[in-house]
């Protein structure tokens, strides 16, 4: 009945006090008190003193148990928070890598400059810009280790170079074959560069 009246937090604090171990301890103490009364003929004052002493010990033990449970809950909450934050950071980098991979497929298909311009202006440009902004805003110091920071830096730099290259591609109305080949080669190189760093980031995240 009392437990039912407690809120969820109170129930969590009360649970350790109701453990089998604590119940056994209390029953053992009561049994020892009964033996002491029987064999040593303690009077009411002495029994009261013993009960008070046992109650004080029980109160200390209860406070310790509750405090220990609170510490464990705080540790678990911090671990859960760290896990969710790491998952969010991972998702930002993965999203950027996926967008770059899509761009790499378009480049590999050997599309014409006209088709590339249309694809870039209609869809790719916006998602690449969002990916780049998200990567730049990502708190690199919270990634966790050196390999993740290095990989993130490589991916961010690669996406920035891609964005600049595609902008140059868009700005030129008529590309000669040599210019077109150079830009496509550079785009492909940057896509492969980012892909390597993404694999590095993925491996470091799994450690």
Summarize the structure.
With 207 residues, the chain is an all-alpha fold.
Would you tell me which CATH topology of the largest domain applies? Four Helix Bundle (Hemerythrin (Met), subunit A)
Task: Give the SSE order as H and E letters.
Answer: HHHHHHH
Number of strands: 0
Number of helices: 7
Describe the protein's topology.
Layout: H1 2-5, H2 8-14, H3 20-40, H4 44-108, H5 113-137, H6 146-171, H7 177-206
Helix pairs in contact: 3-4, 4-5, 4-7, 5-6, 6-7
How does this structure look, described?
This protein has 207 residues and is an all-alpha fold. The protein has 2 domains: 2-75, no CATH class; 82-206, Up-down Bundle (Four Helix Bundle (Hemerythrin (Met), subunit A)). It contains 7 helices and no strands. The chain has helices spanning 2-5, 8-14, 20-40, 44-108, 113-137, 146-171, 177-206. α3 packs antiparallel against α4 (44-108), α5 (113-137) runs antiparallel to α6 and α6 packs antiparallel against α7 (177-206). The longest helix has 65 residues, at 44-108. The protein is rod-shaped, with a radius of gyration of 33 Å. The protein starts with a helix and ends with a helix. 13% of the residues are buried.
Keywords:
207 residues, 86% helix, mainly alpha, disordered N terminus, Four Helix Bundle (Hemerythrin (Met), subunit A), single chain, rod-shaped, 7 helices, 2 domains
